[in-house]
Every structure is written in C-alpha cells, then in structure tokens.
Amino acid sequence: MILSRREKFVCYAVTYLFALFLLAPIVWMLSTSFKGQLAIFQKPPSLFTEFTFQNYAAVLSDPQFLHAFWNSVLISSGTVVVSVALAVPAAYGLSHLTGGRRAGFLSWVLLVRAAPGMIYVLPYYLAYSQIGLIDTRIGLILINSVFTIPLAIWIVIPFFDAIPHEIEEAAIIDGATRFQTMTRIAIPLAAPGIASTAILIFIFAWNEFLFALTLTRFEARTAAVSILSYMAYEGTEWGKVAAAGALILLPVLCFSILIRKYLVQTTAGGVKG
Amino acid sequence: MHSSRLRGYGLYILPTFLVLATITIVPLFVTFTVSLFLIDVTSGLPPVWQGFYNYVSLLSDSRFLNSLVVTAELIFIPVALQLLFGLALAICLRERLAGTRWMRILFLLPAVIPPAVSGLVWKLFVIPGAGGLAWLSGLLGIDLDIDLLSMPATALATVVVASTWVGTPFVALILLSGIETIGKDQYESATLDGATWWQTHRYISIPTLAPIIRTVVVFRILEALAIFPIIFVLTGGGPAGATEPVNFYAYVTGFDYLQIDYAASMIVLFFLAMMAFCSPFLVQIARSAEGGAR
Amino acid sequence: MKRTIASLALAASLLASASAVAQDKPYEGVTLRVLGTQQPWETELQKRADQFTEATGAKVVFDLYSLTQGIQKVTVELSSRSPAYDLVFVEASDVVRFGGGGLLEPLDDAIAADPDVDLADFLPATIDANRIDGKLYALPHFAATQMLYWRPDLFQAAGIDGPPKTFSEMMDDCAKLQTPEMKCTAMRGKPSTSENIWYWTQFLLGFGGSFVKDYPDDLTPTLDSPEAVEAAKFYAKLLTDYGIPGSVSASYDEVVIAMQQGDIAMAIEGAPLAGRILDPKLSKVSGKLGFAVPPGGPAGTFAPFTSQAYAVNAASKNKQAAEAFLIWATSKKTMQDIAANSSFVAVTRNSVWNDPAFIKAHGYDFGHGSFTDAYRDTLATADPHYRLPIAEFRPAADRVGAALQEIVTGQRSAEDALAAANSDVERIFRRARLLR
C-alpha cells in the first residue's frame, strides 16, 4: 500500500518510539551491570560513566549464584523431559480423536493452564513438606509440569494434525503397529515442532518464579530467585543485581532467537480463532 | 473403519490424563478443603472445621476488597493498552518501512525475559534521580528526581507500564501474523475505491482480526496476573496495598502471616470468578482448535 | 608377642591422639545453616565465622535475606518444623509465638553450662523480651530503639535551650526551627509494621492510647479511641507541616540521609543507625549533633523497642553445635570485636557499652548529651510490649500503617481511617480466635 508522508511519519514514530520504550530499560540494566556502586547512584545519571567487569566477576565467583544457575539448568531440562515425554503421546492420540472428546480434553487442559499459580502453591507446599520434596529439584520439575504439559499438548497437536493421514495409513498397511507409526513416522515428521516446544518449555521453566520462591531454600534455589539475595535490607548491590539479571537473561535470549520463527507461530497457533 | 481406527488412541492419552489429573485436580481440591478449616501451623494444633467462615470474613476485609479493585485495574488497563498499542504496531510493521524488520525479532524479547528480571529492569530504570528514566528526562532537559514507587498512584502506574511493556510486543506480533494473511488485493481494491489508509484498516484489518483479537484478549487477561514476580521485585504490593492484587495478598497472607486457610479461601474465590468469566471463551477456543477430524 | 603389645600400644596412642583431636574440635564435620537477615551485624559476623570453625570444627553457612523476606522465611521454615536451618533470626515480638509453639529450643541448659555467657551482662530488657515462662529462647545481639538526634547549633540560633521533652514542645520547637530553606524534621511514613508503625506507636502510647484494651487479658482493638485519633492527627500534622518532602513514603533510609546531609534540625530515629549518621565520611553533621531520650506525651515516654536475636531451631539436628555458635556469636569477645571495629553500635551487653575501645570508636559526645548515655536512658524507658507479642500483630499493624498513610495524604479523616482499620483488626483477631 502506498502511504502518504503523514501516514509514513506516524508509522515511523509509532514503531521507533515503541522500540525505544522497549529497549531503554534493558539497555539501562546492561549499563548498570558495568558500573561501580558509586556511579549507580550518581546524580544526574549518565549512561556510560565507567566500564568495569567487577560486578560480573563478583557474581560469577559467588558459589551460591553458580549453584542456583546450575539448578535452573537441571530443573528446566528436567521439566522439558517430563513434559515432552507425557505430552507428545497425548497430543498424538488427541490428534486422532474428533469432536466432543477432543474438545472436552482440550478445554480441560486449557482451564488447568489458566488457573492462577497461587492456587497450586499452597497444596504443593503442604504436601511437599510432608513427603520431603521441599527444596528438591524433582519437586520443582513436578509442579512446573502442571503448566508445561498442557502448554506442550496445545502446541504439539497442530504439528501432528498437519501430517497427511495417507502416510500413516500406508505404514499401517505395511504392517507397522500404531506405536511404530507414532515413533517412526509421526514423531520424526513433527520433530521441528516438538523441538521448538521443548525450547519453549525450557524458557517457561527457566523463568518460573513463584514456585521456586516458595518451595526452595538453598539446595534447589533457582537463578531467578537468587537475585533476591543481592537485594538486601541496607544498600542493595544494584551492580551485582544487574549483572545477575543479564546472566539469567542470556540463555533465554539465545534460545528464543533460535526458535523465533516458531515462537509466534506456535503460540499464535493456539490462539488463532 | 473410521471408529475402529480411533479406538486405542485413548491409551496414548490415558497416562498423561491421569498424571495431569493427579497434579492438578487433587491440589485444587486440597486448597478448597484447607479453606474450610482453621489451621494454625505455628502452634501445630489440629485443624478446626469452620465451614465458610473465611469466605464470609473476606467480604468485610477491606484489604481484600481493595485487592479486588487493584486486580481489575491490573488486568483491564494493561490489556487495553496492550491491545491498542499492539494493533497500532501491527498495522505499522505490516508496511515494512525502512529499518523496522529487526523489530520483529526485538519484539520477542519482553515475552521471554524472566518476569523477575523484568521487575528488576524496571526497578533499576526508575531509581529516583539516578535511574534510566531520570537520565532520559535529563536529555530532554527535565530534572526528574521523584520516587515513583513511593506514592500509590505512581506506583500503580509504574506496574501498569511494566505490564504493558511485557505484553504489548507479543500482541503486536500475533496481530501482525494475522494481518499478513489478509490478501494485498483486498487493500488495493479498497484504496482504488477511494478509501484512505485509515479507512482500509478500520474496515478491513480490524474486522478480519476480530476473532484473533478476542482470543488474544482472553489469553492476556488470564496472563495478566502472571506479573506476580514483577510486583514482588518492584513494589512488594505497596505502598499501602496500591499494587497488591488478589494473588499477591493471598501470597502475603499465606507465607508472611501464615494464615494458610484464609489465603486458600481468597485464591479459591478468585479462581472461581476467573473461571466464570473466562471458561466460556476457553471452551470455545478449544472447540475451534479442530482439525483433528481426519 | 612383643610386637602385638607394641602395635596395641601404638593403636592406643593413635586412638588417644584421635580423641584429643575430637576434644579439640568437638563439631568437626558439622555444617550449621543460619537463616537470617542481611544487616551490619550479620555481615560482620560472617567475616568472623572462620574463628568459630577453627575452634570447634563446625562450618557455618549463612543464608541471608532482606529484613521482611528473612522474617517471612523464618516463619515458614519454623512452622514446617523442618531441620534445614539450625539457627534462625527472630525479633522479640515473634519469640512468644515461636517459643510458645515449641518451635524454638530453650537455651537455659546450655547457658547454665557455660559461665562465660554471663546473662547479667545483657541489657535486661533485651533478655526479658526473649523469655517466656522463665525459659530463654534467643540470645539478642541487637537492641533496637529510637532516640532524638538534634542540632544544638540550630536550636541555639532559634533561641531554644535544649531538646524537646514532650510532643507539644517538639511541635512548638519545629515552628521556631523551620525556615523556608530547612525543614524541621523527618520521619518514617512508609506504611508497614517496620516503618511508620514502628515510629507512630510511641505517639499512640504517649497520648495514652494502645492497640488493644488490656493486653493480654482483653485483646479488643482500641485503635478508634480518641487517644489514637489524637496521636494520628499529631503525627499527620508533624509530617505534613514539618517533615521533609516525600515523608509520606519515607523509610528509615530517607530519614538517615536527611540527617546526614544536614537537611533537618532534629529526628527521632533508630539508635542503631547512629553509626551511619555519625560516620564523618558519610555525614556532614557528625560533630554537630546532640543526643537525647525521645519526647513523650501526657501518658509518658515510650521509646520504640524490640530486640533482634538468633535462636536455635527446635527441629535442628545439630542443636549443641548451634547453641555453641550462638553463645560464641553473642559472647563478650565477639561483640566487643564487632562493635569496636565496625559501624554496628546497637550492642546488647553492658560490658561492651563500658569497653574503652567501644567508647573510643562510638562514644560520641559533642557537648550536648553523650550518645551512649542517651542510648541507655532511652532503653530504660523501653516497653517490652511496644509491639504486641501476638502472631497477628504484623497483619494488624500493616493494616493500621495503611490507615496512617490515608490520613497523612488526606484521603480520609483520622476518625474514618482508624475506625475502618479498627474493624479490620478486629476481624483479624476474631479469625484467630483471639476474641470471642
């Protein structure tokens, strides 16, 4: 479409101002992460006053933070394994169902996903303190799955739906069992979708905060929660906080660039009316 | 042939169904049960049955009533802003103006940033007199040295802005993917008929996007309170409850004051209200996700 | 045969030396987990924990949070009866419910076995606050109160001799002290149990009001009493007419900074923060301050008071080692060392207050009242029930704190805001079966 100059100007203004709004706080955090404690509270502030790696060095040599970071890696990976293992067969089965039962199951799954996290925290806290799952990685993986299994089912189904049923039928005529059809034909064909789902789940688990906040102490504390220990009563160490924030951001940033094509598609897939 | 082919697929669903039921429905039931007892975890005394006492108390708890208002403010204002800006951005990004392609990648960023880090990002940005906001306003020649998080109105505004910041880009991208499915010829013929740029979007884009918009809004409403970590890091629900939605008050009640039964009753009530509001839409969305009928 | 005897002898001597090592380091291999708050005391203690490890073999790991988060974590951990942490941070007002609930380990036996503890050396109020039914549940390291910091030079210039003794004198003095360039005072306005309520309660009690009718016999809340309304109005007037801009939401930090920068003529603020206010590197007024007991009202003077302490988790699996650490941490030697070599001044031991090294480091006296004397006189007015020792105090006081802010910002009248808060507090108490 051909835009008039005024319309062009409006569009440039809208997009660039929003991009500024989007980037400014993140850039500010990055600049803070390279500042010393004094420069952080300097008035008036400036974007780049000094350039020091001391915050990163301090955070990366803090065993508690490294432990939490490693926990996040393990917990997120564990959540991916559990969710994919349970969601993929279910999605495969659902993609072969029709009408009421499929819709019924899907809406139930959606309702579960839509419940506020707080409603799960209390009973899980009570149950975990009874059976000793507080402050364990397994415990967090389990409660993360409450949200990630439904998410995975929703995202994977369209990929199975997209497989032409002639292919599967041909395999069955050739004597393949239904299970073999799933593992040898359907899953490989849906592999890109499953892989991007796995990454999406990883991001979800990596970002999770409420469960990790309430159900861990020190053994299973995750990176997102570990930031809090730098935000203390007196003199918050903003430089370290910013550096820790940037480090926690890094993996999800890499992953989301990896699956950027799917990120909108897959989530929008569940959304398209 | 068709129905016999379908039988047996239940086996693939059943294990997941059972696991999911155990880890979701059982806890919901426990939460509800807890809300019906008086439980003092500190003293370790056995729970005392109290029926719906907690639910009745909630109705006269002004902090709870305030949290309902805050909840509504934190759901509807950001979602409205997200939709407004998202739509404007989608329409503009569609034009593929010079130097806007990279924004499609940039826009993914807030959606994948850990919410706790988002809270942090904003906390650093609004440090009174020394944060990014003060720096930006300094560039414009304004000396901005106020603590936005210290007054109820400005603290709420900051949380709303942060929430809009998190949600808008994603709304924009989804709407953009919807707009790009609309054929160019539709716009062209409208333009030939003398429609202005604005009119083509008013009468073509928005009506076509309507179902997507509806779905996006439902999901954004459900996601709106997922800003818990942002509130936790940014304001802690304060000052004086100005940024304390129901789920945050429930958290404070349950884990600060250890009144877990009271917290449970709050969250149950909130869950039911939310479901009553959203479930018709959710069922509709699930139904329309057909395509499995092969 | 000889060889057997020789090897037996050798074995015996080895065993003996092994047990000597064990005697030397009785807690070798034990790791103590401390759950607490990140405050100056903990920072200093952390630096010195190696000394304890060297002496006893027990490693000490600190898990520290901000004040509110730390208290919250402690509450949750104790209530779940988990052995994960051996030592926990407690404020005096929490000791009653934790100790009474059997969640804390009584320390009396361990203290009796170690004559070096010398309980009589502690400030009596700090020990009393941590004792229930004759059992001591925590050893305090931090005596928290507020005193009056004032600027004799400014008072003199305004023709006032000496600091205010009563609230009304304080208000009158402010009228004289305040100039267009300088506000009279600063105070905590942020709504919270630990901020505005911590400050305002001295007005409430000083005007003759109280949180409840008759603690502990009748817990009917009385926050809508005429005295409470008067206290709230006084607080609001002082804050709006004579407080620094932003007082409505100020926390202790803003008050300390205003004092450091010389922006105000007087402030009632935490004695423990004296280290920061008086540090010449941070403060413009360090040589120009006077110290006094805070002013009182018609009903008397009620300086804020609580103690912060560490206690041994009753569910801990290393109670002996934990007790040993606690005794070491609050011992004369450790406390003297920390107090003399850091900005931490709110110590709980008389011997430290009289320690020449401490007085040299912190015995500020600029001719208008000595810091240590004012501090001790202030603590003498300390009411162990300044904060009600009931589990519901925190939710109730948070609610009243919000009401105070409504009054200060003019959203509601004092009468209305306090009446609403009172009925909420009543509901909170009723829920907990504190009222019939």
Give descriptors for this structure.
heterotrimer; A: 273 residues; mainly alpha; MetI-like fold; 77% helix; B: 294 residues; 2 strands; 72% helix; MetI-like_sf (chain A); MetI-like (chain A); cell membrane (chain A); transmembrane (chain A)
Using only C-alpha atoms, the radius of gyration of chain C works out to 24 Å
CATH architecture of chain B: Orthogonal Bundle
Most extensive chain interface and residues per partner:
A-B, 112 and 116 residues
Write the H/E string of chain B, N to C: HHEEHHHHHHHHHHHH
Give a written overview of the molecule.
- Chain C: It is found in: Periplasm.
- Chain C: InterPro entries: Bact_solute-bd_prot1 (IPR050490), SBP (IPR006059).
- Chain C: This is Sugar ABC transporter substrate-binding protein.
- Chain C: Its main location: periplasm.
- Chain C: Keywords: Periplasm, Signal, Transport.
- Chain B: It is a multi-pass membrane protein.
- The complex is a heterotrimer of chains A (273), B (294) and C (436).
- Helices cover 77% and strands 0% of the residues of chain A.
- Chain A is globular, with a radius of gyration of 23 Å.
- In chain A, helix 1 (5-33) crosses helix 12 (238-258), helix 3 (54-60) packs across helix 12 and helix 8 packs across helix 9 (178-207).
- Chain A is an all-alpha fold and 273 residues long.
- Chain B is mainly α and 294 residues long.
- Chain B contains 14 helices and two strands; from the N terminus they run ααββαααααααααααα.
- Chain B has one domain (54-288): MetI-like fold, CATH 1.10.3720.10.
- The mean pLDDT of chain B is 86.
- The longest helix of chain C is centred in the first third of the chain and has 23 residues, at 2-24.
- Chain C is built from 19 helices and twelve strands.
- By secondary structure, chain C is an alpha/beta fold.
- In chain C, 47% of the residues lie in helices and 14% in strands.
- The model of chain C is unreliable at 14-21 (pLDDT under 50).
- In chain C, strands 1, 2, 3, 6, 7, 10, 11 and 12 form an eight-stranded mixed β-sheet that branches. A two-stranded antiparallel ribbon of chain C has the order 4-5.
- Chains in contact: A-B, A-C, B-C.
